[in-house]
User: What shape does this take?
Amino acid sequence: MKEALLRSALPSTLTALSALALLVTAFPVGCGEAAAPVTPVVAAAPTRPAPPPLPGITASAAATIEPAPPPKSHRFAVASENATASRIAMDVLEKGGSAADAAVAGVLAVGVTQPVSSGLGGGGFAVVWDAAAKNVTVLDFREVAPIGLHPNDFVEREKLPEKKRGVMFGVPGEVAGLTEIHHRWGKLPLADVVRGAADAAESGFPLSAHLARALKWNEAWVLKTPRYAGIFAPSGALAAPRTTLKNPALAATLRRIAAEGRAAFYEGAIARDILQTAASVGSKITPAELSRYRVVERAALHTAWEGYDVFTMPPPSAGGLLMLETLHMHARADLAGLGYATGAYHHLLAETFRGAVADRLRTVGDPAFVKVDVDALASPARMAARRATIRMDATTPAEKFAVSEAGTSHLVVVDDEGNVVSITSTVNNMFGCKATTAGGFVLNDELDDFTRDAISRRFGMSGKAPNAPHGGARPASSMTPTIVLQNGAAVLALGGSGGMRIPTGTTQVLLARLIFGRSPQDAVTDPRIETPPTGGLLLDATASPDEVIDLQKRGEIVDTTKPNFSAVQAIAIVRNNGVRTLEAGADPRKGGSAIVE
Assistant: This one.
């Protein structure tokens, strides 16, 4: 088997690293200066006799050059945030599995190896390209608030006591979503798809640097939680990176799901475990709400932009709204003219993102309860009017507010038939609501994504916010799984993690590829900006000092001191003379891993 493990390769001149040694490229395209022309001095060459041929080689043989072998098409590609998960997904592809099989296997493996971000107790979104049917499908397996939800529970949510953390727990959709994906597009038996994750949980997996950091940040909770201390601190202290860890309880849960399908999770012993654990921390979820959970198929947000067809996530996610507003506001030539990763380029994107975040707060909620007209919000006319208000020499003051949204994991897969899956899963904040089941997984705290009353009032929506807490609703999200087509074929799949950094990061990588031709690995590694709702502009520490100065001259309050643990994964599909080349990029900020074969 020949495989290429794609990793970021930083130039030798790069010395600036973030506080946590984030491997991020700091050299934008075209920032070098052209050398001054030099007039060559030509001297007459001396006349010399021809050298004798080398022993054993005739003159004609020495001149013979073997032609290069013709290029071969790639078969598969996977990019995820964890090396073990990427390898498990690739194993499924090698055994004849589809992109859907590999995506399910990889997401389950991420839940084993990096439970800080996602797992069986969470949910997510997927965008799937069926190459044979020439069709894009969007599946929403987002968590749902229980009918017994009480809005007062969400007033002081940061100060919730341990016994009330469960009020943020939504009915989990991950198992329903993954089994639905397998049912529609899978080729292998479910047991074969689940086996890799179950084996890793049972036989052991290496502790990643990202999970080790997360465990350290939550050390007090981990050490006082027997079910997790036994896994991540078996000797009484937190395990060191690369230590082999095991989660036999989760292995048993996965094997039951493999044997019995989604019913094993939403009914029976696993369901009783979930309900008991949730009730112990104040959740109001009922057995009926758990058993009745359903995946929702939605129409993708779609736009034709500069020769590409971009398909991304609709509400209840707001990520696709930000991406569409960006594309409808700017022509390719306009952005290209500013230069990649320059101060002008990043300032213009920052102003664009700020407007999209405000639109999110005022308009996006669960479509079952709120009508969200994304086409009107992102219409070219409305975006042109907004673009006209942006100044390149000044920054528009934005409303400041605090939003707690983090976690999440993204994975992309391409198979040998051209099928593509871009899937984002999450338990929301680190380790969700920090309630661990006997089955070895944590419960989400996704209802924390409902809009706070204080923020609603600030935007003039007291009591009427589209994303206000509501029983039976799916809270708004930032997740942005995306697939791009050109001439009816997939050319790019991407998505990200990191709360409100997801849509801004994913959109920046999209533009880097479609406008500037950056390789997926360079695109996900390059310095990125973020416009936090608390104000200012976050910029990766490896960005050029000249860019920082330029941004400050434009009125941006730049902060390069905060580590960036968002991550974007991307795969590009390139076709040339009948040869299909796959280029995969995995974000080094969370230790991502990309494999092409």
The two ends are 8 Å apart (CA to CA). The first strand starts at residue 4 and ends at 6. The chain has 21 helices and 19 strands. The CA atoms of residues 124 and 425 lie 4 Å apart.
